[in-house]
Amino acid sequence: MEIEDVLGDTIGLFDDEVAKDDTIHYGPLILTTAPKEGKAITLLSDHLFSPSLFLAERIERGLVPISGKTVVELGAGCALPSLLSATLADPPSLVVVTDYPDHTILDNLQHNVQRNQVHFSPQAAVHCVGYEWGKDVRPLLALSSTGSFDVVILSDLLHFETSHDVLLSCLASLLARSCTSRTYVVAGKYTRAEVCRDFLVEGEKLGLVWEVDDDEDVWRGTLAVGGGGLDREQLGVRKGMCKSWVGRWSDDGLLQSSAPTAEFG
Q: Which residue has the higher pLDDT, 150 or 217?
């Protein structure tokens, strides 16, 4: 899907709210999206899209089991879901937020981490890392004491359809080969159904099993949310514009090697 298609479909659904979301407040968090320049525009890091809100609400409600777990988010943007998890009373033990290693994108992501550090639980170690899909995953794995991650978050990444192969390779190398590990994949409904289906089918070939995780289009979160023209009604609408899956390893997938290669492709 072209970048203009994603933006056009989203802005058409939500008037012009997406264009005004440079600062987002969610509970104690104050987050900014990347400045509208260079790679931040190409990779959509200059916007907050609905899947991040969908995941944040589910994390707030305790519907994503992350207490004491190791979490990594790929293509994090402003990293709303993963950084929110670090503020919980029972947070993950490790949160790693990653995005493309571009100065503009990473500076904003690092500032989001630093600005909100005071709100992170002392039980949660939070790291910000530049990472390009398909490159060596070992620097990410080295941050986890177990050499893998219990939870991998993919928020609004499926529309990058030409990158499905490297994205899935990263996922396969990062997600712990455990019956309790999970990947949370959320796409906006502007991502074509066949694109989502292709990703899921390719994931199954790697040993993943998917469960649909859609929810009602009613906002159930209780933390205050603001910025981007968001009110409770808009939050419900944006939540309803998401498709969500939870992935786990099949029995065969658990037996496969997850040893990372230096570089994929």
A: 150
CB proximity list for 151: less than 8 A, separation 6 or greater: 64, 66, 69, 70, 71, 72, 92, 181, 182, 183, 184
Percent residues over pLDDT 90 in the chain: 78
pTM of the model: 0.90
Tens digits of per-residue pLDDT, 218-247? 999 999 999 877 889 999 999 999 999 999
Burial degree of 2 (CB within 10 A; 0-12, 13-18, 19+): exposed
Residue 19 has pLDDT above 80, yes or no: no
* String of DSSP letters for 63-117: -S--TT-EEEEES-TT-HHHHHHTTSSS--SEEEEEE-S-HHHHHHHHHHHHHTG
Mean pLDDT of 201-227: 94
- Cα 147 from chain centroid? 20
CA separation for the pair 153, 6 (Å, rounded): 20
Using N-to-C axis directions, what is the helix angle for 193-205 and 164-174, rounded to 10°?
Answer: 40
Q: How many CA atoms lie within 13 A of 167 on its CB side?
A: 26
Euclidean distance between CA atoms 217 and 26, whole angstroms:
18
